[in-house]
Amino acid sequence: MTDSATNHDPANLELSPDTMQAMADQVLQRVLAHLAALPEAPGCGDYDGIEALCRAMREQAPEQGTALDALLAPLFDEWIPRSFTTNGAGYLAYIPGGGIYTAALADFIAATTNRYTGIWEAAPALVQLEANALDWLREWMRFPPQARGLFTTGGSSAMFNAIACAREKLLGVEIRRGTLYVSSQSHHCITKAAKLAGIAHDRVRVIAVDADYRMRVDALEQAVAADRAAGLQPFMVFSTAGTTNTGAVDPLEAIADLAAREGLWHHVDGAYGGCFHMVPGLRPLLAGLSRADSLTLDPHKGLFMPYGTGALLVRDGEDLRALHSASAGYLPENQGEFYDPAQYGPDLSRGFPGLRVWLTLKFFGAARYRAALAEKRELAVWAAEQVARIPGIVLDAPPQLSLFAFHLESAALPTLAARNEATRELMRRVTGRGRVMLTGASVGDRYLGRVCVLSFRTRRADIEACVRYLAEESAALLAEAAAGRRADP
Questions:
Q1: What pLDDT was estimated at residue 486?
Q2: What is the value of pTM for the model shown?
Q3: Measured at the alpha carbon of residue 366, what is the angle toward residues 360 and 370, in degrees to the nearest 5?
Q4: 258-282 pLDDT, tens per residue?
Q5: DSSP of 266-287, one letter per residue?
Q6: How far is CA 1 from CA 19, 24, 256, in A?
Q7: Domain residue spans in the chain?
Q8: DSSP letter string over 32-45?
């Protein structure tokens, strides 16, 4: 049917092949231009007047359609640029990802073919591709063959499923007695996920960390003993393979030993750092990860996928299946030979998240991924060594993986508040230079600057620029602080 006929038939939403080709060409041209401009794009877009812009953008649902080019123009020219450039080489803020191009192609295929992958029977071969991708993750993390998992929207939903799984196995209906343990540096989504899983905030214990921001195993052991003495039931401990604040890797082996001794479910939050386990030479940095009862991974971080690509692995897949497996009169009977997403996760209607992982890994191969991850670690180590030599910068957390943290200190900054504000200003000034974007974090009473290297586009030249900017801007800040001190009566 022609588009002319479609225009005269308001119930027909079909487009002709020529129209679809032209629309795809328009989008692709915009995307390619965007990617080509990334090397010159600022690490953080212009936020001046952003509140007024967002208020002006509010609108009612359109009654009539708009031509695609009129929609793409403001999207690419006005709105996308006024955001963090999260897919740029200079994005060293938070935990970078990347948004690798092959994953976008996979999403286009998944959305246009629109196959249903909630149950195996609806698309057996396609579900097998997802099972293959999960199995590759399992092998790289050195989990046993009986492990199973699922792709999630991110670490938060993976945490929720892990807690629900442990709660179901170890607490049953006695949820209120259960206690769960995190460190003071654990990601905040764990407490949120615990609440969603029925574990109230007063049953979540926060364990102190050591000088390297790693969970103190002695404090964990004491907390578990205190809860048992109070008649409660410790059931789960979370350790972290790369914290968001400082990149710290908890003592995974020691925590695994304690968990085995105390009968606790040990979950490793590897959302940031877990994928470094792919690289054999870096596995000693994550010793003990393979002993976890469950593991969070974020392929939208360590595998450079688009946002919305998380994963959960559970050591004994039957524990995950026991939580989620269900049946209904309108569904086919559950089968046991092949991976079936609905039997291992909460969603029945779902997208096809595994395709982006499968297609990308098949296209590039694991060897290139290992090389890229190893490079990010090397860049972070080099940058930390250089930054530690900058006068006035104190390195608080050397890179255990690819993230390091630091602060400014000087006689011209006599108070903690002054040092914190100077460190914040350093982050602002370096980001204001345009090429890179940095963010900090409050850790206890101290504000720390951070550099996190994880985008596949970040190369040596970008890191050299970051180090240079830190040196120049810290020197300027300290000179201004010293001048201000001399000017005080």
A1: 63
A2: 0.95
A3: 115
A4: 999 999 999 999 999 999 999 999 9
A5: EEEEETTTGGGGGSGGGGGGGT
A6: 12, 19, 63
A7: 105-364, 368-487
A8: HHHHHHGGGS-SB-
Q: Which amino acid is at 475?
A: A
CATH 3.30.230.10, applies to 105-364: no
Beta bridge mates, 265: 236
| Contact residues for 186 (Cβ-Cβ < 8 A; gap 6+) | 206, 238, 240, 243, 269
Q: Residue 180 is encoded by which pair of tokens?
A: 């769960």
Q: What is the pLDDT of residues 38-96, one digit of tens each?
A: 999 999 988 999 999 999 999 999 999 999 999 999 999 999 999 999 999 999 999 99
Please give the C-alpha separations between residue 57 and each of 79, 211, 282, in angstroms, as whole numbers. 10, 47, 47
Structural element, H or E, at residue 441: strand 440-443
Under DSSP, the state recorded for 16 is -
- CA 360 to CA 261: how far, in whole Å? 40
Helix (H, G, I), strand (E, B) or coil at 313: strand
Rg (CA), the chain: 25
- Residue 183 has phi, psi (to 5 degrees) of -95, 170
- The correct answer on CATH 3.90.1150.170 for the domain covering 368-487 is yes
pLDDT tens for each residue of 126-181: 999 999 999 999 999 999 999 999 999 999 999 999 999 999 999 999 999 999 99
